[in-house]
Write a structure and sequence with these properties.
Blueprint lengths: L1 H8 L2 H6 L6 E6 L9 E6 L2 H16 L7 E5 L6 E2 L7 H9 L8 E6 L2 E9 L7 E7 H52 L14 H29 L7 E3 L2 E3 L5
Antiparallel strand pairs: 1-2, 3-4, 3-7, 5-6, 6-7, 8-9
């Protein structure tokens, strides 16, 4: 009987691997003796039944995701639907029928269980008789977008604080020494040779401060020497007459 069946349906490898409505499932029926098979039942499974059975087994696990996404599975004829009440929605039925002429990446919005969802359809390659619909809650999208917005604002504020801190650091490093050097130059212009700049480190500003202090010291010494000279020596620019002699002097 089996040999005749194989001969009628094709080669054994085609029957076993699946060419049209395969693979097959064999069961035996034992009525009186468990060691003897009274009947052999051989079923040829159609691909659509295998696909539907596969979807029914895995879709519950798929829908257990932390994103709140719901996966629906339907066929074009709308005779198969998971969940069963998915075909009760006119919008979903129309969307599945319209998927024949869609690329599979179009996004629509629908109401499901009194909530707004973003919906996208997927044409399966291996499960060619099944169309999958992914429904993502709009409120979850809004929440995720809000989190991203708050993260963006926090990052902006942090960047602003970092920029301000760097600005203060730069101003403290450059502007304060420049202000002190400016004070030294102003003291030099006003002939306040007793002015001294504080120690400003070993960098370029510190070297400039040392040069300016050295110049002020030299000028102060020259100023003191001039004052001493004026007190020690009289004014000799005017001509003096002593007896028959007239003389004048000048200190160079």
């Amino acid at each position: 009987m089996l040999q005749e069946f194989f001969a009628a349906t094709g080669y054994f490898w085609q029957w076993g691997m699946g060419k049209n409505y395969f693979p097959a499932h064999i069961r035996v029926l034992k009525l009186f003796d468990q060691n003897l098979a009274d009947y052999i039942f051989l079923y040829l499974y159609k691909p659509n039944l295998l696909q539907y059975d596969y979807i029914e087994r895995i879709i519950t696990s798929i829908n257990r995701n932390s994103l709140g996404m719901k996966i629906f599975a339907l066929n074009y004829q709308l005779t198969f639907s998971i969940p069963l009440d998915a075909v009760s929605s006119d919008f979903i039925r129309q969307f599945v029928v319209a998927m024949r002429n869609k690329s599979g990446s179009e996004i629509e919005y629908c109401d499901w269980e009194r909530k707004r969802h973003m919906m996208i359809g997927l044409k399966c390659l291996a499960l060619d008789r099944v169309r999958l619909l992914g429904l993502f809650p709009v409120e979850e999208i809004t929440r995720k977008a809000g989190e991203k917005y708050r993260l963006f604002v926090a990052s902006g504020l942090l960047s602003l604080l970092v920029a301000l801190s760097l600005g203060l650091l730069v101003s403290r490093y450059f502007l304060a020494p420049l202000g002190q050097l400016h004070s030294g130059v102003e003291a030099l212009k006003s002939r306040n040779f007793a002015y001294r700049l504080p120690a400003m480190g070993q960098d370029e500003f510190g070297n400039l401060a040392e040069i300016l202090n050295s110049t002020l010291v030299d000028l102060e010494e020259m100023q003191v020497a001039s004052q001493v000279e004026e007190k020690i020596f009289p004014d000799l620019t005017a001509s003096q007459q002593v007896g028959n002699f007239i003389f004048a002097g000048k200190i160079l």
